[in-house]
Amino acid sequence: MVQPYFHSVTLETDNCKGCTICIKRCPTEAIRVRGGKARILELRCIDCGECIRTCPNHAKRAIADDFSLLDKYAYTIALPAPSFYGQFAGQDVSISKILQSLLTLGFNAVYEVAEAAEHVSLATRRYIENSSKRPLISSSCPAIVRLIQVRFPDLIDHLIPIQAPVDIAARLGKEAVMRKQGLRREDIGAFFITPCPAKVTAIKQPIGLGNSWVDGAIPIADVYAKVLRILPYLEDVPGLQQASAVGVCWGRAAGEEEAIRAPSHVAVDGIHAVIDVLEEIEIGKFHDIDFIECQACRGGCVGGPLTVQNAFLARVNMENLTRELSPEINPTVEKQVEENWGAGFYNLEADIEPRSILKLDDDFSRAIEKMELLEKTVGSLPGLDCGSCGSPSCQALAEDIVQGLASEGDCVFVLRDGVQSLAEELLELARRVPGSISSKTDTDEEEPPKESPKESGEVDRRDTTDQAAQ
């Protein structure tokens, strides 16, 4: 039985114009337009946020948490994503001040996700060294993990079964507070400052974990303005900022790849570029590559749909902020990873399972019948993949038809050919049916029968002439 799927991406129906732009950009064909409105198919959606990015009518948005959730906990920890730092620019801006601003906004403590990224980098190195599988694919981007579940299930065993930095950050932060403050885990709220909706979904419905250590996710866009107002009035707090440049650079494309330092590696950003690479891995390519970093967003997390700054500018901001940071991971972190590795601290708790998106029928025999009908239906469609029918491709429309969610008449080309054929049949029928009196209109009048000359009183001129001659 398929587990109900939480979605952070949702549809604002009133704003939807039925333009079909989103259906062509969705990487898993999770959107249909029916009755002039878009709808999201639950099993296919991976919450990547591509539709949020591309919708011109702002009909897609992300559901996330807000600051009011902090009131539920006795103690709160802010978990800023490395990409959060890239939203700010200026000579007086520093990571320390950005962290201080989160404390000013009401959090009791901060724990940098960038520092946890260092832990994950070292743990990933260890995993690559001990695995013969190639290529190994990063599991840090939840949209990519879900993409592989949905579209590339045969590649699941290529995913590295190590938790994402945000989960490690929440656990390390909470355990530190529990030791120092004597609080219970449930009294501590850890909130991720997130650049994308996929991470919201990963927190609400984690993959490979029973329960996430993260209690909420607040969009970067919702925090940015609050921080920007108070940032100029803050001072650097010694010891608040701990992460090195290695961890902070995880916020941009190729940052993870550089941190892990695998012998041979590739970094791919942008979900459609990732799909191209995954398709090649499926046919046996990239087998000599040790590690592949896959990011759903162009530019990495700095290009997330819940960020504020342009991804290219955010990358420059991050480079400026990391110039004064250490280029190497702190030895204390290395020692901690060494201690935790043997205990399985960083490992996922369960296997990643494929997610079925096309189940024709529970009954096997009927499923076979529907599969045959599906193949026949695909053959009857034009194969243009224009999207005018409201489905992203002819294959998708055929699947919808077989499932009773659409009809062949939704295809404008099939409809046109059908109308043309009907018109020809009617014309041919009109030619074959003879005319009849009943076809005359009420205004038609019958002409009176012509009278003979004798009946009309007319005299034949020849008869008169003959009579006169006599």
Report on the structure:
By secondary structure, this protein is of the alpha/beta class. The chain has three domains: 1-63, Alpha-Beta Plaits, CATH 3.30.70; 67-341, no CATH class; 360-431, Electron transport complex subunit B, putative Fe-S cluster (3-methyladenine DNA Glycosylase II, Chain A, domain 3, Orthogonal Bundle). It has helices at 21-25, 50-54, 82-85, 95-104, 113-129, 142-151, 165-181, 197-204, 220-230, 245-248, 255-260, 271-282, 311-321, 331-341, 364-380, 394-402, 412-432, 461-469, and strands spanning 9-11, 31-34, 37-40, 60-62, 75-80, 109-110, 136-137, 188-194, 216-219, 265-269, 291-295. The strands form four sheets. It has a four-stranded parallel sheet with strand order 6-5-8-9, with helices on both faces. It is elongated.
What is the terminal separation in angstroms? 120 Å
What's the total count of β strands? Answer: 11
Shape: elongated
Class from secondary-structure proportions? alpha/beta
What's the arrangement of secondary structure elements?
Elements: E1 9-11, H1 21-25, E2 31-34, E3 37-40, H2 50-54, E4 60-62, E5 75-80, H3 82-85, H4 95-104, E6 109-110, H5 113-129, E7 136-137, H6 142-151, H7 165-181, E8 188-194, H8 197-204, E9 216-219, H9 220-230, H10 245-248, H11 255-260, E10 265-269, H12 271-282, E11 291-295, H13 311-321, H14 331-341, H15 364-380, H16 394-402, H17 412-432, H18 461-469
Parallel strand pairs: 5-6, 5-8, 7-11, 8-9, 10-11
Antiparallel strand pairs: 1-4, 2-3
Helix pairs in contact: 5-7, 5-14, 15-16
